[in-house]
């Protein structure tokens, strides 16, 4: 029997840069050939009974966190935020007019940036406008991302009026040395108070975001943070590997690279957090990097193989239409993807001219749809019967099976089980599931390898 590969050997072999696969094709392959006219046509083609989900992007924060890879800027003046709220309402009008009816909404997700950086009356006003122009289902999920240090009593009142029933608190790490290095000071007490206040508000699903791979982190320090997180009794936890991409996010260059853990250390940190959450907290692993308590809807989706993946990560939302609102937001429709102008000035200009602020996108081919389904199932279920999936889509599995040939090597390394048709990612292989999915990404194979576009695999 061959000796199992060490972590160092696995990292050396698989620690490349691969997409996170929140879409397929991935965002670097969107192009300006898909614009407002195409998007308007796609909206008009939606079936009369098509339900939609809404993603509302707020590109503002009250402070700059050096690790952040989101599209956001620090803005402390309310004037540009109030102007932005007006543009969001106008974009809602544009979308509703093109759809031609009050479409049913199953989910509203506020992301950023920091959505709660907006003035409270702007938050409630936009939600009121959603209810005016769309039919928000009585059981709709209304989710929002929150910086615990900015959760004031007035903000809580606004969240109650908005009908927020799911919230995500950014934790990252409770260690003071780590917080100092990433420019995000946040005590456990502040976070616990925010969690308690949200529960009192009626939030039935609470998520915590944790990050490994940050400067000065060790396996011992991330274990302490994970154990503190357990005390908050969140329904879900998302555990992300820090993506150090200073060529894309210039502020990340302020992070001391010498203090960043290497690939082997990152893998050890990921495993330590997983061990604490699973074995001490009773959480069920969800896909690559999420965890859920057994009674949570996401845990049920894992068991039923009904989990999905979109630009916010793993989701239980199966609605086939996601409308993105705000600067840089991405929408997903049966026909393809669209992305709004990234910069606020370009977004504002389009809205003021009465046109959709789409800057780029991609139309899906039949092959794209097939490979998107393959990649989503691998990312969500960690297993797949390739011929069976191809058959359900009326496609020839031969090209996919040809792409899957390298899985024999993954199997030899203990990362998957593979019989030539069916693949199952092992527990040791879970951190490398993006590498497995990447085998079926034809765009990645065509990309210029000299241009770093993605984060490290682990």
Automatic annotation (TrEMBL):
Residues 46-278 form the Radical SAM core domain. Its main location: cytoplasm. S-adenosyl-L-methionine 2 binds at residues 67-69, 113-114, 172, 184, 209, 243. Pathway: Porphyrin-containing compound metabolism; protoporphyrin-IX biosynthesis; protoporphyrinogen-IX from coproporphyrinogen-III (AdoMet route): step 1/1. InterPro entries: Coprogen_oxidase_HemN (IPR004558), Coproporphyrinogen-III_oxidase (IPR034505), Elp3/MiaA/NifB-like_rSAM (IPR006638), HemN_C (IPR010723), rSAM (IPR007197), rSAM_horseshoe (IPR023404), rSAM_sf (IPR058240). [4Fe-4S] cluster binds at residues 61, 65, 68. S-adenosyl-L-methionine 1 binds at residues 55, 112, 145, 330. CDD domains: Radical_SAM (cd01335). One of its GO terms (molecular function) is metal ion binding. Keywords: 4Fe-4S, Cytoplasm, Iron, Iron-sulfur, Metal-binding, Oxidoreductase, Porphyrin biosynthesis, S-adenosyl-L-methionine. SMART domains: Elp3 (SM00729). GO terms for biological process: protoporphyrinogen IX biosynthetic process. GO terms for cellular component: cytoplasm. Its cofactor is [4Fe-4S] cluster. It catalyses: coproporphyrinogen III + 2 S-adenosyl-L-methionine = protoporphyrinogen IX + 2 5'-deoxyadenosine + 2 L-methionine + 2 CO2. Its EC number is 1.3.98.3. Involved in the heme biosynthesis. Catalyzes the anaerobic oxidative decarboxylation of propionate groups of rings A and B of coproporphyrinogen III to yield the vinyl groups in protoporphyrinogen IX. This is Coproporphyrinogen-III oxidase. It comes from Acidocella aromatica.
């Amino acid at each position: 029997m061959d000796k199992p590969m060490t972590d160092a050997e696995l990292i050396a072999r698989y620690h490349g840069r691969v997409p996170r696969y929140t879409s397929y094709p991935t965002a670097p392959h969107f192009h300006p050939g898909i614009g407002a006219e195409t998007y308007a046509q796609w909206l008009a083609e939606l079936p009369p009974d098509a339900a939609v989900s809404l993603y509302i992007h707020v590109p503002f924060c009250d402070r700059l966190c050096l690790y952040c890879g989101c599209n956001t800027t620090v803005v402390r003046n309310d004037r540009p935020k109030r102007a932005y709220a007006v543009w969001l309402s106008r974009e809602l009008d544009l979308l509703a007019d093109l759809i031609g009816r009050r479409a049913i909404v199953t989910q509203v997700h506020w992301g950023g940036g920091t959505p709660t950086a907006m003035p409270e009356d702007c938050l409630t006003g936009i939600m009121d406008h959603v209810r005016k122009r769309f039919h928000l289902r009585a059981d709709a999920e209304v989710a929002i991302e929150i910086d615990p240090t900015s959760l004031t009593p007035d903000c809580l009142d606004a969240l109650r009026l908005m009908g927020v029933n799911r919230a995500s608190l950014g934790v990252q790490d409770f260690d003071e040395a780590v917080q100092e290095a990433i420019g995000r000071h946040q005590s456990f007490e502040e976070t616990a108070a925010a969690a308690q206040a949200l529960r009192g508000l009626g939030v039935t699903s609470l998520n915590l975001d944790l990050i490994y791979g940050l400067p000065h982190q060790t396996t011992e320090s991330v274990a302490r943070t994970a154990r503190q997180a357990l005390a908050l009794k969140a329904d879900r936890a998302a555990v992300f590997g820090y993506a150090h991409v200073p060529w894309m996010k210039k502020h990340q260059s302020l992070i001391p690279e010498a203090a960043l853990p290497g690939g082997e250390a990152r893998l050890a940190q990921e495993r330590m957090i997983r061990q604490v959450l699973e074995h001490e907290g009773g959480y069920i692993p969800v896909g690559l990097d999420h965890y859920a308590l057994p009674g949570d809807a996401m845990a049920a989706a894992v068991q039923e193989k009904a989990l999905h993946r979109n630009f916010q990560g793993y989701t239980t939302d199966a609605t086939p239409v996601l409308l993105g609102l705000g600067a840089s937001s991405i929408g997903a429709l049966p026909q393809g993807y669209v992305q709004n102008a990234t910069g606020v000035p370009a977004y504002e200009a389009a809205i003021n001219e009465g046109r959709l602020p789409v800057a780029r996108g991609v139309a899906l081919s039949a092959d794209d749809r097939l490979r998107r389904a393959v990649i989503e199932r691998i990312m969500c279920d960690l297993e797949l019967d390739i011929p069976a999936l191809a058959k359900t889509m009326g496609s020839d599995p031969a090209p996919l099976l040809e792409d899957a040939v390298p899985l024999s090597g993954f199997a030899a390394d203990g990362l998957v089980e593979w019989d030539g048709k069916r693949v199952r990612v092992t527990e040791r292989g879970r951190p490398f599931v993006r590498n497995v999915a990447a085998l079926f990404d034809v765009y990645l194979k065509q990309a210029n390898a000299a241009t770093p576009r993605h984060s490290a695999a682990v």
